[in-house]
Structures are given as C-alpha cells and as structure tokens.
Amino acid sequence: MNTKKAGKPAVKPATKPAAKAGAKALQKKPIGLKSQEKPAEKPAPRPAGPAPVRVKRPSNGAVKVGVVGCAGRMGQMLLKMLINAPGIVVVGGTERKGSIALGQDIGALAGADPLGISVSDDPSMLFETSDVVVDFTNPTATIQHAQMAARTGSALVIGTTGFDNDQLNSLYRAAQRAPIVLAANMSLGINLLQQVVEEVARILDPDWDIEIVEMHHRAKIDAPSGTALALGEAAARGRGQNLRRISRRSRDGQVGPRIKGEIGFAALRGGDVVGDHTVIFAADGERVEITHRAGSREIFARGAVKSVLWAAGKKPGLYSMRDVLGFSVQRPQASTPTP
Questions:
Q1: For 87-107, how does the pLDDT look when each residue is reduced to its tens digit (9 = 90+)?
Q2: What's the whole-model pTM score?
C-alpha cells in the first residue's frame, strides 16, 4: 500500500496535466479543418496605425439607446420619450458618482413602468452596449463621452452647449472615429428659424442692425445660450461674415455708438422659462422681429429621438440637425414669363 501511494505522484505530472490542458484548449476554441491542415501558420501581423473604425448598427431593427445624465430634468424627459418611441429599446442610463438616482430603475425614474435596469455611474459600459448614446450634460463630461464613442464606434447625439474652442476641436477629432450629431437646439422650430434668419440676413443690406435676445430659466449656467449663438452664426453666414469678428456679447457703461455690422446679444434669466429667442432686424423707421418660444422640453426630446434613429449605423462624421431633418430654405427659381 505504501509503495502504490508513493508511486502515483510520479506518474501524474507526466501524463494527465498535458491531456487536461489540451482538452481545455479544444473546449475554448475548436480546431477547424484548415487549422488542422496548417497548424504551424499564424495570422499575419496587422500594419502599424490606428485600429479600424467599428461602426455600430441597430440589431434586428431595434436601436439600442443609452442616456448619460438620465436623472436631470432633460434626462428624465429623454428617457420618457425614448422608452415610448417605436424602433428603440433603452438599454441603460448613467449619472455622476454620488447621485441619489444611482440604483434606481430607469423606467420608474422616467415615470414609466419599471424596466429592470438600474441607473449606473459607469458610462464606458453604456457605450459598449449601446448603438447610440444621448448626452445633454455639460461640456467637460461630453468631451469624455465623445472619446468613449470614438473607442467603441457608438453614435453620440449631443444636446450640450457651452463648448470652448479646444473642446470643439476634441469633438471634431472624435467624429473621425464615430458618428456624432451636435446640435445647440434640437427642436424643429428653432432649426427652421436658423434657416429663415440666414436668408433674411442675406437679403437685407448691412444698414439693418441685428440683435439677438434670449431668456431662460434661472438655473441655466451658460450665456448667451447655445441656441442664441447658433442664430448669430446663421445671421453671420447670411452676410458672409465670421461671427467671432462681429459679435458683441454685452454692453455696459459708456460703450459709444453701435458699430455698423455687428451682431449683438442680450441674455435674460429668470423663473422657469424653457427658452425664448428673438432675432431683431432694425433699420430706420422699421423693425422685423422673428421669435421662437419653447413651452416644454418635450420639443428637444422629440428632436433627440429623430437624431437617434437617424444616427444609428451612420459613418463617422460630425453632423447637425440640418442633416437629421433634411430641410433647408431654398431661393425660389425665376419663373418663365408668359407671352
């Protein structure tokens, strides 16, 4: 008995461990006929350079969507609209670390039936599992999310405003690797207004002064609003100008007479105003005012849903709501005179 026990350990290392390792390898990766014929061949090494762009596409027709910043006022509205949108399945939502919303069901958070999905603080996982991610957060967080989109190939729909030049450049770089829709305002009315403002500015001569007035709720942190700046960009395009060179952000004290050709901005804050924007064209003896008033954040969420469905499966690039909505103001063609 003692002789048999002492002999067993000498036999095991020579036989069974090697067999077990081989069995495990076969279970993990079965060998096909080609690999049996040429077991010594290895795949050729990839050339140096960036990894190929992986463009995500909707699976079985349903677009998998995640929402970062899902517990805010806009985030909850987005969840509500996306949950009820046909062709979309919400797969997750995130909030910043320490948020009281962490662990809550995202369906209940949006006032809908529970979905069995808890609010997380890990946006990187959200990008791994989503075809499209919607972001209405803040510039710093959005830049980080854009980098995640570039790594995973997920589309990113951005409603955040207040980016500086460096942050915009970061978005441009990320858009080389993933489809990104960037819009200061996603409502149909505001995007139509931008088109109209550009056309009016093109028609009217520089003797018409342009002023843009906006008002938002007391909690808004950036001014002028991203929408007001977008309207200013539209007016500047209409005049063939660069807005940065001709904009006047504020006036205070002895500023002197108004400079001809500048585009002025005025920002008002108070109450719970969702968003009011007026573009004023003023000349001697007459004035044209074009106004848009937002009565509910639902108009922005509806635009975000359109953007999600449009962006799913698109090639990398930086897109706008013009691309999503597919409309523009066109100059009427001259009619042929009748004899």
A1: 999 999 999 999 999 999 999
A2: 0.72
